[in-house]
UniProtKB/TrEMBL annotation:
It comes from the Bacteria. InterPro entries: BamC_C, NlpB/DapX. Residues 79-99 are annotated as: Disordered. This is Outer membrane protein assembly factor BamC. The keyword Signal applies. The keyword Membrane does not apply. Residues 1-24 form the signal peptide. Keywords: Signal.
Length: 379
């Protein structure tokens, strides 16, 4: 008997409900690390589609193809050997015997790699996301921004008897009803270190209408546990063992400082009682926690170029699933761009402000909203 589109959709949503019920119990990192929770590598198993030329995925810049892991070619240094016998990307020292450590701010974590520059680690990061089943939509070493396409975590689909039989023929018809994307920010830290953060975004397909025959995609909260899982996988890519990576996550070092709002001439700014290097990183992480997307950044000028993110439109344009239903007829213009300025006011004080086109503090309601959002995230 043929299954109707509604029946098929019901099967997909039932699978999603079961998967979400399973994940609901994963309250700790140990729950996530206890078994294989991610599988994006098989997401592209459906038949090939005719994709309009204007939606073709851009080619990855071949200038940044990674050299062999242990070879010192170009800007890639030979891996260091730790006292535990690891061959790691980081350079071991008294504070970091493994050549790296994790820092945290609330539920956000980032990796600090000792003795390496962003340029030296960039090829490894490209390999990392490709090995985990993603293609890159943003690959900009000059700005330290790397973003993946939207992809489906096939591990969220239950392996029931129907999928093991009929599903072998039409497995592409099964869907978890969610799509994930990851953004990596790579920054030069203090004392010859590199800071690497990973931010998760998710969209979920929700049934609509009285008869539940149609659906729409809605933005879901980021998953800090999933971000931590990929940080652990990245540390393994950089030469640590599974146990060492988990231990560094457990021993994450707190890195927070209170932020004050300063108001003058109708415009609000933020004062962070820390150095520019640390403030630059924290502001970037805070922006990633809001609905404002960092399109570009200039560390020398201390400027983040941000816009309000419309995840629905981006999901339509990116990735395999988006190409199934994107009509290409959207007339919506890109969101307004804002300039978030991070400026040193001394060795242990940094000011953050939203600037207008003339380089002055922006007093518009949208700009002040960004300041308020940053204040909430940084505190």
């Amino acid at each position: 008997m043929k299954r109707s589109a509604l029946s098929l959709h019901a099967t997909r949503m039932a699978a999603l409900a079961l998967a979400l019920g399973t994940l609901a119990g994963c309250d700790t990192l140990n729950d996530w690390f206890s078994s294989d929770k991610v599988n994006y590598k098989v997401a592209g198993s459906a038949p090939p589609l005719a994709v309009p030329s204007d939606l073709s995925t851009a080619q990855v810049d071949q200038r940044y193809v990674a050299p062999p892991v242990d070879a010192a070619l170009g800007g890639a240094p030979t891996r260091a050997v730790t006292s535990a016998g690891n061959r790691t990307e980081g350079v071991p020292n008294a504070q970091d015997p493994l050549g790296m450590h994790i820092e945290r701010d609330g539920d956000r974590r980032w990796l600090v790699v000792d003795g390496r520059s962003p340029d030296q680690l960039w090829p490894q990061l490209q390999e990392f996301w490709q090995e985990n089943g993603f293609s890159l939509t943003t690959d900009a070493p000059a700005t330290g921004i790397m973003s993946t396409d939207w992809a489906e975590n096939r591990a969220n689909i239950p392996d029931d008897w129907f999928r093991r039989t009929i599903g072998k023929v039409v497995d592409f018809a099964y869907s978890s009803g969610t799509r994930d994307r990851f953004r990596t920010l790579v920054s030069r830290g203090g004392a010859d270190t590199t800071d690497i953060s990973i931010t998760h975004s998710q969209m979920e397909e929700m049934l609509t209408g009285q008869d539940k025959t149609s659906s729409r995609w809605e933005e879901r909260p980021r998953n800090p546990a999933l971000e931590a899982l990929f940080l652990a996988k990245l540390m393994e890519k950089f030469g640590l063992t599974d146990a060492q990576a988990k231990q560094l996550l457990t021993d994450a070092r707190p890195s927070t400082a209170p932020v004050k709002v300063e108001t003058a001439a109708g415009g609000a700014t933020l004062d962070l009682p820390e150095s520019f290097d640390r403030a630059w990183l924290r502001v970037g992480l805070a922006l990633d926690r809001t609905n404002f997307t960092v399109d570009n950044r200039d560390r020398e000028k201390g400027i983040y170029y941000v816009r309000y993110a419309d995840s629905m439109q981006e999901l339509k344009k990116e990735g395999f699933f988006g190409k199934l239903f994107y009509s290409g007829t959207s007339t919506k213009k890109p969101g307004q761009e804002f300039l978030v300025n991070v400026r040193s006011k001394g060795e242990a004080l940094t000011q953050v402000a939203v600037l207008d086109a003339n380089g002055q503090v922006d007093t518009s309601s949208d700009a002040q909203r960004i300041v308020s959002l940053l204040h909430a995230q940084l505190n």
